[in-house]
Amino acid sequence: MPNPSTTPVRRRTPFAAESVAGLSAVVTGGSRGLGLLIGAELLRQGCEVTLAARDAGELARAETFLRARGGDGDTVHTAVCDVREGDQVEALISSVARTHGSVDIVVANAGVIQVAPTAAIGAEEYEDAMRTIFDGALLTSLAALPYLRRSPAGGRLALIGSIGGLLAVPHLLPYSCAKYAVAALAEGLHAEEAAHGVTVTAVHPGLMRTGSHLHAEFGGDRAAEFAWFSALAGTPLLSMDAERAASRIVGALRRRRPRVVLTPAGKAADALHGIAPVTTTRLSGLAARLLPGGDGGAGGVTPGHDVRVHTGGVVGRLRGWGSALNDRAAARFNQL
Predict the structure, then answer these.
(1) pTM (global) more than 0.70
(2) What superfamily in CATH does domain 24-332 come from?
């Protein structure tokens, strides 16, 4: 294989869409939700796709999902991998390179969401978010970049951030802190890797209807936290159809865009924070007062699929009304 330091850098027209047909793509956190749909869109665009995640059962169902969309044994592969473990990530990337001859596209999507007031959680939740979200993105990037530099097509790396990584969101602080770090990593890598012909795309989605509320973790007044989060995540005017989001993300990869922010609400929040950060912070403070208060009996976090069973009464009806689309997305995109 050519030495990355001697490989000439191709000149490309910025933001011109390039075909990705025939390229080898890896998606971490690819067994469900957004990662699964990014894999499906890459497959539709003609890529050979490898989905990586921790759960073998989820991966088996994800493979069935992609095969139903036209994939086969040559174009769809899965691999059990914990992105928090560097040796597993390196083994994943090297295996894909041996199988397909190159690694051309890598999407670092693995993550975790904790929804709780600060009083209800401790350092453990922050450490878990950083390990899964930031360390996962970092270890994936470090393992993939040597191969992406050697890609005949010019490598593409996408790091999935969040609007929560552009401005801090109340009751999502561990998530926001980790996503802020991913945003910095993506921006810095884009600048440094240009010399090697690799483009790095920072993706900052707003709320999406992926069904992720069932795998998010809730602390404090768990039922109330679950209700507001799942309802907002499923509200059409505030959230985005997940398949459309996946299409936009792959489109940004094809155009080698350095940064993409999804959803009108996300773009508006990003712009307002850039123009008037003090005002945005004060507005966030007002929004925080509307969220469930107190620690609700501090004691860690509970997965949404367990909280959901115990959500009833007025809170349950509110959640059911606001998140009907998100609940349907959970069934469609392997979140159950």
Answers:
(1) yes
(2) NAD(P)-binding Rossmann-like Domain (3.40.50.720)
